[in-house]
Amino acid sequence: MTYQIIAPTAPKVPIVISVPHCGVAFPDDIKSQYVPELIAQPDDTDWFVDRLYDFAPALGITVIKAHYSRWVIDLNRNPESKPLYNDGRVITALTPTTNFLGESLYIGATPDPAEVQRRLEAYYLPYHQKVNDLLDDLQKDFPHVLLYDAHSIRQVVKTIHSNPFPDLLLGSNDEKSAHAALIKVSLEGLAAGDYSLEHNTLFKGGHITRSFGQPSRKRHALQLERSKTLYMNDAETEYAPKRAEKLKEILKPMFNQLITALGNLD
Question: Which Gene3D superfamilies does its entry note (predicted)?
Protein backbone atom coordinates (compact mmCIF):
# COMPACT_ATOMS: atom_id res chain seq x y z
CA MET A 1 0.00 0.00 0.00
CA THR A 2 1.31 3.43 -0.91
CA TYR A 3 -0.41 5.13 2.01
CA GLN A 4 -1.95 4.50 5.41
CA ILE A 5 -5.28 5.85 6.62
CA ILE A 6 -5.77 6.61 10.30
CA ALA A 7 -9.50 6.75 10.84
CA PRO A 8 -11.15 9.06 13.37
CA THR A 9 -11.98 7.64 16.79
CA ALA A 10 -14.64 10.33 17.34
CA PRO A 11 -17.46 11.47 15.03
CA LYS A 12 -16.01 12.70 11.76
CA VAL A 13 -15.30 16.37 11.19
CA PRO A 14 -14.67 18.01 7.79
CA ILE A 15 -10.87 17.92 7.96
CA VAL A 16 -8.28 15.60 6.42
CA ILE A 17 -4.63 15.85 7.48
CA SER A 18 -2.17 14.77 4.78
CA VAL A 19 1.42 13.83 5.68
CA PRO A 20 3.07 13.14 2.30
CA HIS A 21 6.74 13.20 3.34
CA CYS A 22 6.89 11.01 6.45
CA GLY A 23 7.45 7.75 4.55
CA VAL A 24 10.83 6.02 4.74
CA ALA A 25 10.21 2.80 2.77
CA PHE A 26 11.66 1.94 -0.65
CA PRO A 27 10.07 -0.66 -2.96
CA ASP A 28 12.12 -3.85 -3.15
CA ASP A 29 12.37 -3.72 -6.93
CA ILE A 30 14.19 -0.37 -7.00
CA LYS A 31 15.88 -0.22 -3.60
CA SER A 32 19.22 -1.51 -4.91
CA GLN A 33 19.47 1.46 -7.30
CA TYR A 34 19.99 3.93 -4.44
CA VAL A 35 23.11 4.82 -2.47
CA PRO A 36 22.72 2.53 0.58
CA GLU A 37 24.16 4.98 3.10
CA LEU A 38 21.65 7.66 2.08
CA ILE A 39 18.47 5.59 2.07
CA ALA A 40 19.37 4.02 5.40
CA GLN A 41 18.48 7.43 6.87
CA PRO A 42 16.68 9.44 4.16
CA ASP A 43 17.55 12.93 5.29
CA ASP A 44 14.79 14.84 3.46
CA THR A 45 12.10 12.96 5.40
CA ASP A 46 9.55 14.90 7.46
CA TRP A 47 10.48 12.81 10.48
CA PHE A 48 7.75 12.07 13.04
CA VAL A 49 5.25 14.58 11.64
CA ASP A 50 2.59 11.86 11.67
CA ARG A 51 3.37 11.25 15.36
CA LEU A 52 3.02 14.96 16.06
CA TYR A 53 -0.62 14.75 14.95
CA ASP A 54 -1.51 11.68 17.00
CA PHE A 55 -4.23 13.73 18.69
CA ALA A 56 -6.14 14.25 15.42
CA PRO A 57 -8.27 11.05 15.32
CA ALA A 58 -9.72 11.86 18.75
CA LEU A 59 -10.95 15.18 17.29
CA GLY A 60 -12.71 13.36 14.46
CA ILE A 61 -10.01 14.15 11.89
CA THR A 62 -8.96 11.65 9.22
CA VAL A 63 -5.23 11.29 8.59
CA ILE A 64 -3.53 9.99 5.45
CA LYS A 65 0.22 9.44 5.46
CA ALA A 66 2.67 8.22 2.86
CA HIS A 67 4.37 4.85 3.11
CA TYR A 68 7.22 5.38 0.65
CA SER A 69 10.02 7.92 0.82
CA ARG A 70 9.73 11.14 -1.16
CA TRP A 71 12.92 9.96 -2.90
CA VAL A 72 10.82 7.29 -4.64
CA ILE A 73 8.41 9.95 -5.89
CA ASP A 74 7.51 13.27 -4.33
CA LEU A 75 3.79 13.43 -3.67
CA ASN A 76 3.92 17.20 -3.24
CA ARG A 77 5.39 18.02 -6.66
CA ASN A 78 3.62 18.84 -9.89
CA PRO A 79 3.06 15.56 -11.81
CA GLU A 80 4.53 17.20 -14.93
CA SER A 81 7.57 18.38 -12.91
CA LYS A 82 6.69 22.05 -13.33
CA PRO A 83 8.63 24.03 -10.69
CA LEU A 84 6.70 25.35 -7.71
CA TYR A 85 9.04 28.30 -7.25
CA ASN A 86 11.27 30.33 -9.53
CA ASP A 87 13.46 32.18 -7.04
CA GLY A 88 16.71 30.29 -7.52
CA ARG A 89 16.28 27.77 -4.71
CA VAL A 90 17.09 24.10 -5.18
CA ILE A 91 13.86 22.27 -6.04
CA THR A 92 14.01 18.50 -6.10
CA ALA A 93 12.14 16.84 -8.95
CA LEU A 94 9.05 14.65 -9.03
CA THR A 95 11.43 11.69 -8.84
CA PRO A 96 14.43 13.27 -7.08
CA THR A 97 17.92 12.39 -8.27
CA THR A 98 19.65 14.38 -5.51
CA ASN A 99 18.80 15.35 -1.97
CA PHE A 100 18.48 18.97 -0.84
CA LEU A 101 22.24 19.09 -0.31
CA GLY A 102 22.85 18.15 -3.92
CA GLU A 103 24.14 14.64 -3.21
CA SER A 104 23.31 12.02 -5.83
CA LEU A 105 20.77 9.46 -4.60
CA TYR A 106 21.48 6.85 -7.26
CA ILE A 107 24.44 4.53 -7.73
CA GLY A 108 24.10 4.55 -11.51
CA ALA A 109 21.44 5.66 -13.97
CA THR A 110 18.58 7.83 -12.79
CA PRO A 111 14.92 7.13 -13.67
CA ASP A 112 14.11 7.55 -17.37
CA PRO A 113 10.73 8.95 -18.51
CA ALA A 114 9.15 5.50 -18.64
CA GLU A 115 10.21 4.78 -15.05
CA VAL A 116 8.97 8.17 -13.88
CA GLN A 117 5.59 7.42 -15.46
CA ARG A 118 5.51 3.97 -13.85
CA ARG A 119 6.12 5.46 -10.41
CA LEU A 120 3.56 8.16 -11.04
CA GLU A 121 0.92 5.53 -11.73
CA ALA A 122 2.02 3.10 -9.01
CA TYR A 123 2.69 5.45 -6.08
CA TYR A 124 1.72 9.06 -6.80
CA LEU A 125 -1.74 8.86 -8.35
CA PRO A 126 -3.16 6.42 -5.75
CA TYR A 127 -2.29 8.85 -2.93
CA HIS A 128 -3.87 11.82 -4.69
CA GLN A 129 -6.91 9.78 -5.66
CA LYS A 130 -7.39 8.67 -2.07
CA VAL A 131 -7.17 12.26 -0.81
CA ASN A 132 -9.82 13.21 -3.35
CA ASP A 133 -12.00 10.28 -2.28
CA LEU A 134 -11.71 11.25 1.39
CA LEU A 135 -12.78 14.81 0.59
CA ASP A 136 -15.64 13.51 -1.57
CA ASP A 137 -16.87 11.35 1.29
CA LEU A 138 -16.74 14.23 3.77
CA GLN A 139 -18.63 16.52 1.42
CA LYS A 140 -21.56 14.12 1.54
CA ASP A 141 -22.04 15.26 5.15
CA PHE A 142 -20.37 18.68 5.29
CA PRO A 143 -20.68 21.59 2.84
CA HIS A 144 -17.11 22.81 3.36
CA VAL A 145 -14.05 20.60 3.86
CA LEU A 146 -10.41 21.33 4.60
CA LEU A 147 -7.26 19.49 3.56
CA TYR A 148 -4.38 20.33 5.88
CA ASP A 149 -0.98 19.36 4.48
CA ALA A 150 1.58 18.80 7.23
CA HIS A 151 5.33 19.24 6.71
CA SER A 152 8.60 19.92 8.48
CA ILE A 153 12.02 21.15 7.45
CA ARG A 154 15.50 21.47 8.87
CA GLN A 155 16.03 24.77 10.63
CA VAL A 156 18.76 25.57 8.11
CA VAL A 157 18.79 24.49 4.45
CA LYS A 158 21.13 26.88 2.68
CA THR A 159 20.27 25.55 -0.78
CA ILE A 160 16.75 26.91 -0.22
CA HIS A 161 17.27 29.88 2.11
CA SER A 162 20.48 31.40 3.43
CA ASN A 163 19.11 32.12 6.92
CA PRO A 164 17.40 29.87 9.47
CA PHE A 165 13.73 29.30 8.68
CA PRO A 166 11.00 30.84 10.83
CA ASP A 167 9.45 28.36 13.25
CA LEU A 168 6.12 28.12 11.43
CA LEU A 169 5.31 28.85 7.80
CA LEU A 170 1.66 28.77 6.75
CA GLY A 171 1.00 28.45 3.02
CA SER A 172 -2.28 29.27 1.30
CA ASN A 173 -1.05 29.77 -2.29
CA ASP A 174 -1.24 33.54 -1.92
CA GLU A 175 -4.63 33.19 -0.18
CA LYS A 176 -6.15 31.35 -3.14
CA SER A 177 -6.37 27.84 -1.65
CA ALA A 178 -8.65 28.54 1.32
CA HIS A 179 -11.39 30.85 2.53
CA ALA A 180 -10.09 33.97 4.27
CA ALA A 181 -11.85 32.97 7.51
CA LEU A 182 -9.92 29.68 7.66
CA ILE A 183 -6.63 31.43 7.00
CA LYS A 184 -7.40 33.94 9.76
CA VAL A 185 -8.25 31.21 12.27
CA SER A 186 -5.06 29.33 11.39
CA LEU A 187 -2.83 32.37 11.75
CA GLU A 188 -4.43 33.37 15.04
CA GLY A 189 -4.13 29.84 16.37
CA LEU A 190 -0.49 29.47 15.38
CA ALA A 191 0.33 32.91 16.79
CA ALA A 192 -0.95 31.82 20.21
CA GLY A 193 2.42 30.25 20.96
CA ASP A 194 5.82 31.89 21.28
CA TYR A 195 6.92 30.78 17.82
CA SER A 196 7.97 32.93 14.88
CA LEU A 197 5.33 32.76 12.16
CA GLU A 198 5.11 33.80 8.52
CA HIS A 199 2.45 33.39 5.84
CA ASN A 200 3.10 32.78 2.13
CA THR A 201 6.69 33.93 2.34
CA LEU A 202 9.19 31.11 1.84
CA PHE A 203 6.60 28.37 1.28
CA LYS A 204 3.20 29.06 -0.27
CA GLY A 205 2.04 25.46 -0.37
CA GLY A 206 3.14 22.66 -2.65
CA HIS A 207 1.20 20.87 -5.36
CA ILE A 208 -1.15 19.21 -2.88
CA THR A 209 -2.28 22.54 -1.45
CA ARG A 210 -2.47 24.20 -4.86
CA SER A 211 -4.39 21.40 -6.55
CA PHE A 212 -6.86 20.52 -3.78
CA GLY A 213 -7.43 24.08 -2.58
CA GLN A 214 -10.54 25.01 -4.56
CA PRO A 215 -12.68 27.34 -2.45
CA SER A 216 -15.17 27.72 -5.32
CA ARG A 217 -15.96 24.02 -4.78
CA LYS A 218 -16.04 24.54 -1.00
CA ARG A 219 -12.76 22.62 -0.77
CA HIS A 220 -10.02 24.39 1.12
CA ALA A 221 -6.36 23.54 1.61
CA LEU A 222 -3.56 24.86 3.80
CA GLN A 223 0.04 23.80 4.26
CA LEU A 224 1.99 24.14 7.48
CA GLU A 225 5.76 23.89 7.34
CA ARG A 226 7.53 23.82 10.69
CA SER A 227 11.12 23.75 11.86
CA LYS A 228 12.10 20.26 13.00
CA THR A 229 13.61 21.67 16.19
CA LEU A 230 10.09 22.52 17.40
CA TYR A 231 9.42 18.86 18.07
CA MET A 232 12.79 17.13 17.63
CA ASN A 233 16.12 17.48 19.42
CA ASP A 234 18.67 20.11 18.40
CA ALA A 235 20.46 17.62 16.14
CA GLU A 236 17.11 16.95 14.40
CA THR A 237 17.58 13.21 14.80
CA GLU A 238 15.13 12.22 17.55
CA TYR A 239 11.58 13.01 18.60
CA ALA A 240 11.50 15.36 21.60
CA PRO A 241 8.26 14.68 23.51
CA LYS A 242 8.33 17.83 25.65
CA ARG A 243 8.88 20.08 22.65
CA ALA A 244 6.18 18.23 20.73
CA GLU A 245 3.68 18.59 23.57
CA LYS A 246 4.32 22.32 23.68
CA LEU A 247 3.59 22.58 19.96
CA LYS A 248 0.46 20.45 20.32
CA GLU A 249 -0.82 22.98 22.87
CA ILE A 250 -1.46 25.40 20.00
CA LEU A 251 -2.25 22.85 17.29
CA LYS A 252 -5.15 21.18 19.12
CA PRO A 253 -7.13 24.36 19.80
CA MET A 254 -6.38 25.62 16.30
CA PHE A 255 -8.03 22.53 14.82
CA ASN A 256 -11.03 22.88 17.11
CA GLN A 257 -11.36 26.47 15.92
CA LEU A 258 -11.06 25.36 12.30
CA ILE A 259 -13.84 22.82 12.79
CA THR A 260 -16.09 25.58 14.11
CA ALA A 261 -15.08 27.98 11.32
CA LEU A 262 -15.83 25.41 8.62
CA GLY A 263 -19.33 24.97 10.02
CA ASN A 264 -19.91 28.72 9.92
CA LEU A 265 -18.98 29.22 6.27
CA ASP A 266 -21.79 30.02 3.85
Answer: Zn-dependent exopeptidases (3.40.630.40)
